[in-house]
Specification:
Distance between the termini: 12 Å
Strand order of the largest sheet: 2-3-1-4
Largest sheet: 4 strands, antiparallel
CATH topology: Alpha-Beta Plaits
Order of helices and strands: EHEEHE
Mean pLDDT: 90
Low-confidence stretches: none
Strand content: 35-45%
Number of strands: 4
CATH superfamily: TT1725-like
CATH architecture: 2-Layer Sandwich
Length: 104
Amino acid sequence: MLGGSPVWIGWIEFDLLLGDVHSLKGKRAVLRPILAELRRNLDMSVAEVGDHELHRRAEIGVGIVAAHSERVTDALDRAERLVAERPEITLLAARRRLRHSDDD
């Protein structure tokens, strides 16, 4: 450490099945508001991280850094609820990790 407090790093990856999407343009139209809502409401880093060329599948990664593990866990829980509640997609899987900056 550089003399400061250790930090907690958390991330979650969502595997999504999109609804009635037949093009990459349609896929972007479905994903764009979801990504924007995650960024705006949860103040997290968000990106499409996989399945870029598939029309009806998407992988989204969400990450956060905070001083306390509870803050990270709460934010990841809220992100998962937000994604799971979207009617235009099906959440197939959510994989999460939580690391402390002192972890090897």
